[in-house]
Amino acid sequence: MTSTGPAFKPGYALPSEVLEKLRNLLGERFSTGDADLLSYSHDYWPISLQWVLKGSFPWVPSAVAWPENTFEVQEIVKTAYGNSIPVYAFGGGSGVLGGTVPEKGGIVVDLKRMRSIRLNEEDMVVEAEAGVNGYYLEKYLNSKGYTLGHIPQSIYVSTLGGWIATKATGQFSTKYGGIEDMVLGLEAVLPWGSAVTLPPHPRTSTGPDLRRLFIGSEGVLGIVTRAWLKTCILPEERVLLSYVSETFEEALESVRRILKRGAKPAVVRVYDEAETKRHFYMFEEAYGRIMTVIVVEGDSGIAGAERRIVEEEFRGRMLGEEPVKHWLETRFMVKEASEFAPLGVVFDTIEVSVGWSRAMSLYRSLVEAVRAVKGTLFASAHASHFYPQGVCFYFTFAGVPRGNPEKYYNDVWEAAMKTTLENGGSISHHHGVGRQRRSWLKNELGPAFNLLKKVKTALDDKGVMNPGNMGL
Amino acid sequence: MPGKWDWLKDELRASGLAGATPLVIRFISGRLRGPDDLVKCALCPNMCRHACPVGIVDGRETTSPAGKTRAALLLRQGRLQPTLENVSPLYTCLSCNACSVWCPFGFSVADLVRPVKEKAAGGGSIFKEFREVFENLEKHGYVYGEPKREDSGLHGDLLYLRGCTLREKQPGVAEKAEHVLEELGYRPFTIDEACCGIPAYNLGNTRLFKRVAEKQAEKINSSGAGIIVASCPSCVYAYRVLYPKHGVKINAEVNHIAEFLEDRLKGFKGEGRVVIHNPCKLAFALGKPKALYNTLSSVEGLTVREPRRSGGETFCCGYGGSAVPRLNPQLARRIALERGVELTEEAETIVTACPTCKLALESNGFKVLDVMELLHSFTSG
User: Fold this and answer.
1) Each residue of B245-273: pLDDT tens digit?
2) Minimum distance, in Å, between the CA of residue B354 and any CA atom of chain A
3) C-alpha distances in angstroms, A307 versus A258, A310, A424, B11, B117?
């Protein structure tokens, strides 16, 4: 594991004046207790789940803080900056790449106590603090007749701040877009403790878009504390469609034609043969073939037109609503790590994106490359997010390594990242970079990685914001 | 139809690994015992966090549902010492079981961490805040100390059990409940009831729970009742679910009052607009998420509203599970306030069917009626 951040000693005790200041500021919302420190020594990175299993954590923070407003975040960050103490913003902890693990010790700032929501119905904009739970926010909007349209698999767990920090996207993204398409404005606390507000506008032409500096910044440039997001009216109509195709390529080509005509189904998911068998084994007609599930939704006039386009362009056998209902019912069943990790089975997913012209080449090469890593039991994929320009492949692999599980895990990632870059893909579609992908970020960005480093240094001259994450 | 794991068998066959992975083959054939439930929960990303009032309002990983099982796992592994500070996250649980609704395995975090709590308590890690409860239960079989002596009512056709909180704090509700039952044609009677024992169970003292349960069962069974109606859903949960699990038998059929009345209010007339707070024990532990709504919806002329989090997604009042209001009253209060504000967006008057919920919301400034108080207001009495 490599790190380019400054060498803070993990788990060290904070200076007494820092402890006193933060205790005075936060009272019981500041802790150095063992149970709290260990709770924040991991996230949902498979490597860190092994630490949970063993009860042994290589990286432990020195303290955890639960601010309740932006001022308190500012005070914590200002104090940390003044004492060169690392700071890690923490949301739901559902990141799968180690983006929040406190690699250099320091203070974890958990934002979940900041969760106010304010809806402006006339402007169709919702203002929310960064720690609001995703499902809580969506449910609130639904009760008022709106939706954000951002439904990641982690929605029960994750927070708005986490979505922005990782540049997340959701299952309904083909219609509603990723979080970057929803954020109209934001407030962030900068590494030295000042707060900056970029207010919401329908559109602006006021120089480089500074909001984008923080979207996907994974806590290395500051802490996002609040955001203003677009909302949509709850769909009047929802249409569920599914198809069986003979080949993966044929199904993807059908989706490409649909998008080319301008239709935007909210959900499109195309499963390769192995994943069709895995997720849809109860639909015998699909077993050994390719399953596609589609959800079209919105105003009934628009949804009707989009449905017609889907039906005209998809070349495959229609299977009706049942497979889509099955997907809707099971889409949040996250249990593989719980079942397999304790048995010594390494199980993980890797999502990458690629243009249509090289999509099949990347898919085939990556599955082959992962299967070639000794110990791999299987490698499969589904296409989970679509654009007129290309697609996101969501690969799943599992293996039973003979030797060191971490080595096997990293070998698979090495093979997958290398193959993605060789095939002109992007190494991450929506999970972000974190600590697992950091070694490959510079390969993808090339000379632009130096630009990113310069931005980081310009904003965070002491390197206190999530040091080591993203290789920064 | 192909089986659940056929895809994996196909993959292993295709890659020539079918014979090289005995562990996986044993697992998918069901011959390998997987990890225990506490480990499974600890390795979950917290897929029930959104439903957990503590998880949402407290916002700490340590007291989130999976955070509690991770702390329990560390305690079990000996990586955390069983000090009161380290054990306290396990008690920061309302025992509402909302987690079990969303869990892919159906786990209740309260149940998963109970053995670790009990072991720590057995080793002396008992909070002083619990001692009074244990002493009262040991000495008087009653949570609030020595109960006032009461004459048992006349024998009737239906035993009405009030529970400690209603009996001690809301005696007027009990009188009104009896009156409504009489209006509906029943002859309710009461006994000098003791505690069901659930506070001891929640606070990690299962042995005491069992002793209290046995005494209470003896009192109930000796009344000769054939049907029991109770106002407290936690008591009903104890009688219906926990007692049989611990070898204690109640002879009568036990009903919570909201489920008992679900189809018995035909022709009942009322008025006004209320919002219902569905008690978590009724919705989750007893599996009756619509009972209160159905009961009140059958009252002609009454407008019944539900809050954002209702039915199978109801949100505990913050005072459930016995431990949180004793160890962390501020958190209990914050949860109650959040719930109360959400409820009163729909109507000024909150109606519930649990003495603890009424106490929690009322003590935080909201106007709350027990379902029987509301129904009583529509009767001639």
Assistant:
1) 999 999 999 999 999 999 999 889 999 99
2) 25
3) 10, 5, 32, 35, 55
Task: Look at residue B150 and tell me if it is in a domain.
Answer: no
What's the pLDDT band for B33 if we cut at 50, 70, 90? confident
CB proximity under 8 Å: B 286-315 to A = 308-309
Q: What is the ipTM of this complex?
A: 0.94
CA angle B81, B43, A410 (to 5 degrees): 110
| B298 & B373 share domain | yes
User: Can you give the residue range of the structural domain that contains B320?
Assistant: 273-377
Q: Is A344 on the interface with B (CB under 8 A)?
A: yes
For residues B175 and B198, membership in a common domain is answered with yes
Instruction: Provide the percentage of residues in chain B whose pLDDT is more than 70.
Output: 98
Asked if B89's CB is within 8 angstroms of A136's CB, the reply is no
The region of weakest confidence among B141-155, B183-197, B325-339 is B141-155
B231 and B278 within one domain: no
> Which residues on neighbouring strands pair with residue B367, listed in sequence order?
B349
Buried b (16+ CB within 10 A) or exposed e, A252-290: bbbbbbbbeeebbbbbbbbbbbbbbbbbbbebeebbebb
Return residues 2-41 of A near B (CB < 8 Å): 33-36, 38-40
Judge whether B56 is closer than 8 Å to chain A, CB to CB.
Answer: yes
Would you tell me the crossing angle of helices A300-313 and A248-260 to the nearest 10 degrees? 140
What pLDDT score does A5 carry? 36
Question: Which neighbouring-strand residues pair with B269?
Answer: B300
Same domain, B352 and B283: yes
Which residues are paired to A245 by β-bridges? A290
pLDDT tens, A401-445?
888 889 999 999 999 999 999 999 999 999 999 999 999 999 999
Q: Do A140 and B50 touch (CB under 8 A)?
A: no
Which of B210, B238, B260 is where one domain is finished?
Answer: B260
In order of start, what are the domains of chain A with their CATH numbers? 16-112+454-471 (3.30.43.10), 117-233 (3.30.465.10), 237-330 (3.30.70.3450), 336-431 (3.30.300.330)
At position B239, the amino acid (one-letter code) is Y
